[in-house]
Amino acid sequence: MGEDVEKLKQQLPLLDYLRQQNWTARPVGPSGEFAGLCPLHSETRPSFYVNARKNLFYCHGCGQGGDLIRFVELSRHFSFRQSLAYLEQYNAPPADPAAVLEKAVAFYQQQLDRCPEALRYLKQRGLYDPAVIQELRIGYAPGGSLRQHLTAQGYSCDLLRRLGLINARGCDAFYRRVIFPCCQGGRAINLYGRSITAAVAHRFLPGSKGGLYAWEWVQQCPEVILVEGLFDYAVLWQAGFRHVTCSFGTHLSTHQFQQLCDRPRTVYLTFDVDTSGSGQQASQRLAHQLQAQSIAARRVLLPEGHDPNSFFVQGGDARQFQTLLEGARS
């Protein structure tokens, strides 16, 4: 906490804060001191002094003195923690959630190249092309560093908590996760964190995922490949299939379904072929629903036990996948 307090005081000098509160002062001497009427008690002659170089105040009339946080405690009758929270909010940039998420995305992208374990994980999942990783803005959250990075830019812990980037204890929400941004209108509206270990559940931030993944890129396409997961999406993109989108599972929201039905097109349903049969059952149900809306639906049958990601990881290539598309069932 001490480090956060010092950063806050550096970002918001005491003299600047006082002037923003309409305190009028005049310089006294060459040492960076200013004098004016005391904001803490009534007086007619200036006795309140601020040393701008030391970032401290002292009133010769009421005897109070200290730093910015102490001034807020006295002037607003707050506790230390209340004063700190107030100043964090006061000094925070305008609360544009998309802007904060964009900064988080950029930070996670920087971390990816510094973390060999994350790059190894991507290769294990079939993602090896740096250009594709950059295009999809994939990053990595090592954990323990995002909060410090964003608060240093003036964003309050309260805002980061509301966005889900840090938890109630103030710790980074994403830890040892590959990060995919979910975008709308070219800006991030959510983040998906895929754990690189089996011990941690995969998760999104709270709030909307924004419909089908990267829908704006494929909305005009007469043919669309629909997959369940983001690694399915990424390996198909890497293999050259750019008319692909992702539904984050087999159960589409009303909005996602409407997106697929917004114009005549053919949808290639490329869900998991798992041993339970749940992926193909969901695919069949969705095919019937799409056909009822006059949308041509084709079910792509991958080899038993595979999803698109594992198909490519275990040796499948673009030509073989194209053959599966051509053989897809109505």
Shape: elongated
What are the low-pLDDT stretches, counting only 5+ consecutive residues below 50? none
Total helical segments: 15
CATH architecture of the largest domain: 3-Layer(aba) Sandwich
Report how far the terminal alpha carbons are from each other: 61 Å
Major pleated sheet: 5 strands, antiparallel
Mean pLDDT: 92
Number of structural units classed as domains = 3
Derived structural class? alpha+beta
CATH topology of the largest domain: Dna Topoisomerase Vi A Subunit, Chain: A, domain 2
Kindly report the spatial arrangement of strands forming the biggest sheet.
Answer: 1-2-3-4-5
CA gyration radius, whole angstroms: 28 Å
Helix content: 40-55%
**What's the β-strand tally?**
13
Percent of sequence in beta strands? 15-25%
The CATH top-level class label of the largest domain? Alpha Beta
Give structural notes.
40% of the residues lie in helices and 17% in strands. It is α+β, with helices and mostly antiparallel strands and 330 residues long. It folds into 3 domains: 2-91, Alpha-Beta Complex (DNA Primase, Chain A), CATH 3.90.580.10; 97-204, Alpha-Beta Complex (DNA primase DNAg catalytic core, N-terminal domain); 215-326, Dna Topoisomerase Vi A Subunit, Chain: A, domain 2. The longest helix has 16 residues, at 97-112. The radius of gyration is 28 Å and the shape is elongated. The termini are far apart.
